[in-house]
Amino acid sequence: MINRSQKTTLARSISLLLISLAAAACGGGSGGLTNSSADGSTNNSPNSSLNSGVNALAAGPRTYPDQPIDCSVPEMRNWVEANMYDYYLFYDQVQQVNKADYESPEALLSDLRVLPFDKFSFIGDAQTSTALFDEGKLHGYGWRLRRTSESDVRIAFIYPRSPLAEENVQRGDFLLAINGIHPLDLTADQWNEFLGTGVEVRTPTFTFLDSNGNQRDITVTRTEFDIDSVLDASVLPHAGVNVGYLAFTQFLETSNAELDAAFAQFSQQNVSELILDMRYNGGGRISVANNLASKIAGPAYAGETFAEIAFNDKFADANTPFRLTNSLNALSLDRLVVLSSGNTCSASEMVINGLEPFIDVVQIGGTSCGKPYGQAPRQACGKQMSALEIRFVNASGFGDYYDGIPADCSAEDTLNHALGNPQESMLKAGLDYIGNGTCSTVAATATREFPGSRDNAGLQTFDPVETEKTILGDP
Fold first, then answer.
1. Is 59's pLDDT higher than 70?
2. What is the CATH class of 1-136+229-443?
3. N or C, which end of the chain is more exposed by having fewer CB within 10 Å?
């Protein structure tokens, strides 16, 4: 199969990719990117430049004051502006505005973003981000919602150790009401009041309808729980081979141990094909993306460039390659099947694009989100600013997918079967491709999936509150 760089002329932005990392505590401004190897160490041999690349991102180039003088709105606005005119990837295109016209640093950042390239820079809660990316913890209910029609909101997945999992809410269930009001009829203020934000505790009542037509009310308390970023890791015998299936939702620091366990299982059961389900994966840490790609490609490619990172022209001296490593229980695959959607973003796209020069990557589902950018967030006064800072290209020099990476085969996410069920629509399309080498439906055009909502704490690559509110919009 030809490389993505040959088969598409889509996109026109910079060649890049993603990641949002947790930054240090309020007293420091360095990003929290780390380089964890498969055995938990911080030296991903044989690649020393990966460490230097991590350190470059963690230190983060800057010429502005590291912290605002105080936490007043004027000083926070000054801090935002200084960031945007310094390390921001599109610093030379930032418009001049009157800072005094903005009531918050969040509003100022929103207007300073350079469109159409930057839909991603945002300011969020520092504590929430650190808990998520460093510790794999999330405050919320444990759902991922999708609006599937003008009037229907359904569960796309439930995190296994979450409050809703304890109530046996399932993928495909319909969300009929929150505190007696249909979710699409809620105002943004009601959404936040009923469900809470940050670490707020709320105890709403949800009305669900399951696939058997049973309706029930569930009262659940919003609380902190541990995330399982691997929702399913299983081996499916198919077409005479063992096919590994990995449903992966986020690239967190805690994900490395989960990936180690999954690939140990795949290795023990002689998996020779892999279906990597990233349809709901909005991104995460670059070091975890590098580890996952290394486990897929195998030791033959250790030392090869996974991604070349580049800052803006003021900090070009910090540019460095990230290289594939010799990771435990690597599969050494010749082909990877990826299940994707409009929510496949950032670090997920990095895995797809980074492996393209070395193995056959077949993408099934929908076009990815188109975020070829990265961030090394800065923290101040309890807030975290995640402004686009870096861009990526793969070993072939390609990364120009501002409009997303198009799928090779089309498949719909029908929500009618559990993830990992061979009859689930997208997984079935992947198995069919492995069995006969052709698409059951060729992807003629890019179809962006309704973004739905993440739990209120969200992913660092998106504004967590605003992402939750997108459920109120059109499908």
1. no
2. alpha beta
3. N
